Amino acid sequence: MQKFIKILEENNLLKVISDPIDTELEMAHIAYIEAKKGEEGKALLFTNAINRKENKNYEFSVLMNTFCNKKALYLIFGKDCEEVASEIASLLKLHIPTNFGAKLDFFKTLLSLKNIPPKRAKGLQADFKFKTLKNLDELPILKTWSKDAGKFITMGQVYTQSLDGTQNNLGMYRLQVSAQNELLFHTQIHKDSTHFFNEYKKAGKKMPVSIAIGGDPLYIWCAQAPLPKGIFELLLYGFIKKHPAQLVKCESNELFVPKDSDIVIEGFVDTNEFKLEGPFGDHTGFYTPAELFPVIKVEKIFAKKNAVYQATVVGKPPLEDRVMGLGTERVFLPLLQTTTPDLIDYKMPENGVFHNLILAKIKPNYPAHAQQIMHAFWGVGQMSFVKHAVFVDEKAPRLEDYEALILHILNRFKAENLLISSGVCDQLDHASPNACFGGKLGLDATNDELGKDELERLDDEALLKLFKQVDENISALKQFFIQSKSPITCILVDKKTAHKEFFEKLLKFKKHFKILIFLDTNNHLENPYMLLWRVVNNIDAQRDVFIKDECVGVDASAKGDLEGYTRTWPEQTDCDKSVVEGLILRNIIKQDKALFDQFELFE
């Protein structure tokens, strides 16, 4: 990690903070704000980590916002992500050579693949002078949000293997500290590590687990990469770097971890012991509920001299995961194209928190081609978690040109081209009535532009006045893309009745609108970036999308008894205002009202 810190410094991508910074809330709040600066943001190195409540000064520095922008991503990969994607595409197109030159190229490619598999060396203590730590209290583990259940490791490389030792897995899971030498293992039901856990549980055995922190930051990117089941993530590291990951054996279990790791935590999962884990403010921007998860009993903790503890902060977008997601999006396009060959490109908007919204450009060759690809998406690996997908054809604007693209889509929007289905969803999703599965929505916008526009447009004030005739609980209204043939009308409502009923009453004014989105009164209609984040987070298509008389209603409000929602609707992650004000007074961060308002830091 020290090596990469030097690279960040040489490229003017590092901000060193030597003031005493508390690992409880302060550190995460600073990183949270820095990450919202986009391409201007920098990685943060905290060299004086403390915990005031526990009266502790930590030995180790903390690095946050490692993936601070596109330039940092390039430095981590050692090349452009598009170059990696091109290499994968070339590999997927390998065929039997027919002439001498082609044979040479073929064998050259095969020889380059020998450097992909990880190489195993001697044990941890054999190659490096690690020191042994007494317990987890010696590590500067962060508490991110005020309502989190406690401290969480947020950027650990979690290594597990199958019961028979033939499969290895590297994942990135949050790990709550539940005791001095105990962690709670938040693996999700769809993950390889959960499949391994089930094998060990059935056999009545403990499952070995090792957590590496630090080292080459590409390890942590590989940990979150959506590789097919059974493929060890460090094979991807070898493919990108063109040299294998160097692994060393742990002392207390049979697992191997990268030998350049800064910190290694070794232990076993007791397959019969579970404890309440959470709540935790996760990457959706909402707190996930407390649930039972397996317990990791920590056996050993090692740290190198000058070790750096790596951490991240998750919550409302944009954050560090936007840059990690950009790398994933580009690198995995060729793999997606193997199952959907008519896919031209796709985009995961950061405020759609990746799995909640995907935009895809395709080459439609026959009727319902877009619907076919929708189903293919929903059946492929982690893409199956996608809740909402919008498809356009090759004539559409660039997927990154959101303003032009949305206008293009709305000029082709037809309620009949909406596909509502159901399937698996991310375990962190809160909108679905059932954990881990719920409604999905696809929109085929590959058709020609709509014909005659018969809408009678009113300004916001006049339309609000009309709507208030139906319900006085509407507090505000704003129309977006009113110049399009399918404007989007957002209304803030103090909900007293189910919005489906309200939508049907408003249809008496249908000549004035096409798409209605119902939102709670805590939304800010002047902030479309955060509106989109809430809408795609808060809807389950089967319950919350209403179609009638060619109009569409979307209930993006919090759900409860009115909708028959029996789960607990979560709170969103908001910064503690007193913590931010204290950091401003100490000149650690700057007062930036425009930035704070833009990304709604406070409730």
Average residue-wise pLDDT = 92
Low-confidence stretches: none
What is Rg?
Answer: 25 Å
Q: Helix fraction?
A: 25-40%
| Class by SSE composition | alpha/beta
Number of helices: 19
Shape: globular
Q: Tell me how many strands there are.
A: 31
The largest pleated sheet is described as: 9 strands, antiparallel
In terms of DSSP E residues, the strand content is 25-35%
The span between the termini is: 36 Å
Task: Based on the model shown, name its key terms.
single chain; 603 residues; alpha/beta; nine-stranded antiparallel beta sheet; five-stranded mixed beta sheet; 28% helix; 25% strand; globular
Please explain how this structure is put together.
- The protein has about 600 residues and is α/β, with parallel strands linked by helices.
- Helices cover about 30% and strands about 25% of the residues.
- The chain has 19 helices and 31 strands.
- Strands 8, 9, 10, 11, 12, 13, 14, 17 and 20 form a 9-stranded antiparallel β-sheet that branches. A 5-stranded mixed β-sheet has the order 22-23-24-26-25.
- It is globular.
Can I get a quick summary?
This protein is of the alpha/beta class. 28% of the residues lie in helices and 25% in strands.
How is the topology of this model organized?
Blueprint: H1 2-10, E1 14-17, E2 21-22, H2 26-35, E3 43-46, E4 49-51, E5 56-57, E6 61-64, H3 70-77, H4 81-92, H5 100-112, E7 119-120, H6 124-127, E8 130-132, E9 152-153, E10 157-161, E11 168-171, E12 175-179, E13 182-185, H7 192-203, E14 207-213, H8 218-223, H9 233-241, E15 246-249, E16 256-258, E17 263-277, E18 280-281, E19 287-288, E20 291-304, E21 308-310, H10 321-331, H11 333-339, E22 343-347, E23 358-362, H12 369-377, E24 388-393, H13 402-410, E25 418-424, E26 437-444, H14 460-468, E27 474-480, E28 488-493, H15 499-506, E29 515-519, H16 528-538, H17 541-544, E30 545-548, E31 551-555, H18 577-585, H19 593-598
Parallel strand pairs: 1-3, 2-4, 6-21, 7-15, 23-24, 24-26, 28-29, 29-31
Antiparallel strand pairs: 3-6, 4-5, 8-20, 9-12, 10-11, 10-14, 12-13, 13-20, 14-17, 15-16, 17-20, 18-19, 22-23, 25-26, 27-28, 30-31
Helix pairs in contact: 4-11
